[in-house]
Amino acid sequence: MNAVRGWTPITKADNIPLREGRAVLVGDAEIAIFHLEGRYLTIENKCPHKGGPLCDGIVSGTKVVCPLHGQRFDLETGMPVLASQPGCVAIFPTRVDDGVVFVDLGGACKAGEEAAA
Ligand code: FES
Q1: Which of 3, 18, 44, 91 has its CA 20 to 30 A from that of 34?
Q2: Is the C-beta atom of 47 inside 6 A of ligand 1?
Q3: How are beta strands 21-26 and 63-65 bridged, if at all?
Q4: pTM for this prediction
Q5: What is the CATH topology of the domain spanning 7-107?
């Protein structure tokens, strides 16, 4: 999925407003980083339904609503909120160090799959 491995500095944490997401292209991976009350969570920025940009979705709690057709995904697990929805999105380990958001793109995890080696 991507050519970048290990913890990668992405942006200053201040650049991601509370309860919003921002899209970032790192290598060939487009990710969406969300800011939730001091926590930062990262998922792939492509809805499994028809590719909607999840970074633009409305955030409610730990869920994001796809802006195209309204499917909801849990930002912590990548799982769809409704079991009847097809597919899930990859999640990426994320941390903040000295005010900078780092994402481990090599640590991508998708429900039902093993973490990338
Ligand atoms: S593209 Fe996301 S719900 Fe359709």
Answers
A1: 3
A2: yes
A3: unpaired
A4: 0.89
A5: Rieske Iron-sulfur Protein (2.102.10)
Q: What is the pLDDT of residue 76?
A: 96
- Please work out whether the CB of residue 52 comes within 6 Å of at least one atom of ligand 1: yes
Ligand 1, atom 3, residue with closest C-alpha: 69
pLDDT tens, residue by residue, 11-65? 999 999 999 999 999 988 899 999 998 899 999 999 999 999 999 999 999 999 9
Which segments within 1-117 are labelled E, that is strand?
A: 7-12, 21-26, 29-36, 39-44, 58-60, 63-65, 72-74, 91-92, 94-97, 100-104
Instruction: Give the pLDDT confidence of 61-94 residue by residue, as tens digits.
Output: 999 999 999 999 999 999 999 988 878 999 999 9
Ligand 1 atom at minimal distance to the Cα of residue 66: 2
CB 71 less than 6 A from any atom of ligand 1: yes
